[in-house]
Task: inverse folding
């Protein structure tokens, strides 16, 4: 078993910690109807100051989320307005403004449970994972794909802690492959639809954070840090 040299291991650990934190938050934001405690935390300036990324897309998202919490004219955007926007974008009744399933964006007929869903399911299986509602809800919901990225990052942190460079490389390669084969193939279109149709700064800000986090995954790798 190859061991991780220092300080390279610490650099990679910091990057993986950021991936795990960001994609856990994004999974919750896309996967659940907004709840007050989560919303308050996500648009808190103090919490946002600790967000792991600082690129133009992220910075724009942070500004929008802060504005959502402070309000433009009449106070913060209400929880009901956020829930209404969430349902209109991601839940329905249809037609959805920003369908949250990969196969809808990539399949010829725009249907769920198409070939892309099965490809995502197989990718999960490679790492011993599966959708919590297998065969009942599509495996390729953006919240599940985000959770998958976060889970692989957490596993990589665990193996780094014991100095296992080979194990870390396998998991990071999995993150990069899944990003290239799946997330990058449809999430930009999803975010474009959110940015086009969202009626709240909250969801526009969420799109900015996601766009920034997706871009950062391209910089995650072990080729240079574990040599």
Result:
């Amino acid at each position: 078993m190859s061991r991780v040299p220092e300080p390279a291991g610490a650099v990679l650990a910091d990057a993986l910690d950021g991936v795990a934190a960001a994609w856990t938050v994004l999974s919750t934001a896309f996967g659940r109807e907004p709840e007050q405690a989560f919303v308050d935390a996500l648009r808190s300036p103090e919490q946002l100051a600790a967000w792991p990324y600082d690129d133009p897309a992220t910075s724009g998202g942070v500004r929008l989320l802060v504005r959502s919490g402070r309000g433009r004219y009449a106070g913060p955007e209400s929880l009901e307005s956020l829930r209404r926007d969430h349902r209109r974008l991601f839940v329905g009744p249809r037609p959805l403004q920003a369908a949250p399933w990969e196969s809808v964006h990539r399949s010829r007929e725009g249907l769920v449970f198409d070939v892309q869903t099965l490809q995502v399911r197989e990718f999960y299986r490679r790492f011993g994972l599966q959708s919590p509602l297998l065969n009942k809800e599509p495996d390729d919901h953006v919240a599940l794909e985000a959770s998958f990225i976060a889970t692989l990052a957490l596993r990589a942190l665990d193996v780094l802690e014991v100095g296992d460079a080979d194990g870390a490389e396998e998991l990071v390669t999995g993150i990069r492959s899944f990003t290239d084969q799946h997330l990058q193939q449809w999430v930009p279109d999803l975010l474009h639809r959110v940015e086009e149709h969202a009626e709240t700064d909250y969801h526009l800000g969420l799109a900015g954070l996601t766009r920034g986090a997706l871009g950062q995954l391209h910089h995650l790798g072990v080729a240079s840090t574990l040599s």
In short: The chain has ten helices and no strands.
